[in-house]
């Protein structure tokens, strides 16, 4: 057996090792490329699925028809409900002439209260009266807006119709003051009372304002009572809620004003 020289043996071993590493590198590269190809194939398939789903959504949405609304009318006691056609539209509840007149009259009534409170700033320095006046002015101004919207939504005029007075039209006679007096709602101050309030200052103004506003609020309570005493009136939900709020709110303010005057509230006098 011939022994290979040491240098040739080392060269031979180096060559074999190099060829093994090169073969391993080639094999690893092929495996890596194979894995990358599979990964790319999977990514492409997933992207294709996602795009297919996204493009199919509008088609699906177009194919599904929206459900028609179901309108059900409750039946009377002992009677079944009825299913109405989808074209059915809600209508405002029926109203009586008394409802309309109440709103028209209360607009006029509230307007005078706001006019009275407008005098406070220049006629008195009493802090409690100023606070009360601001409260009355704000609440009744907002209520006037509500009443006007209520009437306009029903196609009704904002103002009361002037009553006809046959035989009262006389040549040369100014009927404006008589008409104004005849149109006063319950509790409203007469022109004479309003003039006295405008001319008063300080404590005298405070007294006239409080007594006049108590009278004024009392008239509003009469108007609410008359409304609910009228057959078929007050059935509208909005009007019912408003009228009951007016009643409770003005009763509370009457008690406040009676206390400011040093009087016992009506409830305590009974």
SSE blueprint and pairings:
Layout: H1 6-63, E1 71-73, E2 82-84, H2 97-117, H3 120-123, H4 127-153, H5 176-182, H6 191-199, H7 202-229, H8 237-260, H9 266-269
List the secondary-structure elements in sequence, H or E: HEEHHHHHHHH
Q: What overall form do the CA principal axes indicate? A: elongated
Sheet of most strands: 2 strands, antiparallel
Uncertain residue ranges = 165-171, 173-181
Helix content: 55-70%
CATH class of the domain at 97-159 and 182-269: Mainly Alpha
Q: Considering the protein shown, what is the CATH homologous superfamily of the domain at 97-159 and 182-269? A: Ferritin, core subunit, four-helix bundle
Find the count of extended strands (DSSP E, 2+ residues): 2
Beta-strand portion reads: under 5%
Decide which structural class fits the backbone: mainly alpha
Mean pLDDT: 77
Strand order of the largest sheet: 1-2
Brief summary of the model shown:
Helices cover 67% and strands 2% of the residues.
Please give a structural write-up.
The chain is mostly helical and 270 residues long. It has a domain at 97-159 and 182-269: Up-down Bundle (Ferritin). Helix content is 67%, strand content 2%. The protein is built from 9 helices and 2 strands; from the N terminus they run H-E-E-H-H-H-H-H-H-H-H. It has helices spanning 6-63, 97-117, 120-123, 127-153, 176-182, 191-199, 202-229, 237-260, 266-269; strands at 71-73, 82-84. The chain has a two-stranded antiparallel ribbon. Helix 2 (97-117) packs antiparallel against helix 4 and helix 4 (127-153) runs antiparallel to helix 8. It is elongated and about 70 Å long. The termini are far apart. Residues 165-171 and 173-181 have low confidence and may be disordered.
